[in-house]
Specification:
Blueprint: H1 13-36, H2 40-67, H3 74-84, E1 93-97, H4 103-111, E2 116-121, H5 131-140, E3 147-151, E4 164-170, H6 182-191, E5 193-203, H7 208-211, H8 214-223, E6 228-232, E7 256-261
Parallel strand pairs: 1-2, 1-4, 2-3, 4-5
Antiparallel strand pairs: 5-7, 6-7
Helix pairs in contact: 1-2, 3-4
Length: 262
Amino acid sequence: MNKNVNYGNWVPEKMLALCYVAAAVLGIAACVTGPVLHLAIPTWILGILAAICLVYGIYMHICHELFAFGKGNMMAKVHQHLVDHLEWDGEGTLLDIGCGAAALTIRCAKAFPKAKLVGMDYWGAEWNYAKEQCEANAKAEGVADRITFHKGDAAHLEDPDETFDATVSNFVFHEVRSAKDKRDVVREALRIVKKGGAFSFQDMFSQKSLYGDMEEFVEELKKEGITEIHYIGNLEKKLDFIPGYAAAPWMISGMGILYGRK
């Protein structure tokens, strides 16, 4: 991995710090209420809460190291899985919806050296990503001349119908707050793909609370004009680079991929 890039992590370091600080504060409070104030029940409660925060912090720290580029590399492997399912010759322009820190955008740029690419993201305050970070990463990786970045909303893309030859998105659709029905975000992503163009999307597609019955959804998309579409669900149980502890409900449980040609 290029040491000059910063692709961030799905487990923000601020979250780790918060867990450890909470564990420390609760632990100190337990020490005060016990030996000093002699309050047994509050001491036990505070001690248990401190232990929970500490254990959760350690678990998230392990996941952070697993996901990290240049360490566990699971984020990179997930991105590669998406690219491997993008059936495209690399001629034309590709859009990465929800590009974050541009890790997937840059991976696509390297996989398709003739392509022009666009990275779009909302870059909200809660995420540790920014447009400037994307541009710096693209420059460090030597592909800045083929990529442009802009702010946008995945549920309401500014591009006209059938603008791009290929479109990708990774773990973004379920986070789009401007769309109550996440299936509408998928349809919006497909809208801007040219007829015959390629797409590859990974998200929590196997979570019925988000997408309902995916087999039925695939059939709906076919009726709406998508020429070729494939769906593979519960990838966390099928990909050998995802350990069981990372497939917990609060991590990447329900991972699926939707790919094909319009």
